[in-house]
Amino acid sequence: MTKQEFINHLQNSLRGQVPEGVVRENVSYYEQYFENQRTQGVSEETVCERIGSPNLIARSIIEAEKHETDSFREDEAELIDDGSPSGGTHFSVHARRMPGWLRVVMSILIVIFIFWLVFNMFRILIPLIVPLVLIVFAYRMIKKFIAGA
Predict the structure, then answer these.
(1) What is the tens place of the pLDDT at every residue in 111-123?
(2) CA-to-CA separations, 83 to 60, 87, 130, 143, in angstroms, rounded
(3) Are 94 and 75 a contacting pair, CB within 8 Å?
């Protein structure tokens, strides 16, 4: 199998199964891998034998992507240039939800922060409130004593 046959087979196996960005990323990786091996004097056929079946690689990529999208809700909006002189520019925006465990940790930290804040507010206000309550209590006792005399 040649490099181009391998790349074509990988692309065809991935298209429609994973987002186009994932296809491009993996094709680019394997093209670069083939190029690195070529500069070291390794033939395309030998590289293909070492890498293994493009079907098996594609299945691994699809499963990994499926696992990732199960863990994260991925919303992808793609804007593709419609043939302007700059030529085929592709922009992707990925918005990911926080994983469940991270939401739990963040919730716990927020609750701890709220308790800490309330505790510190009381710690600051107690020295002000206690004398005020004592003054009001003393005033009422004195007023009651005077009214009773």
Answers:
(1) 999 999 999 998 8
(2) 34, 5, 75, 90
(3) yes
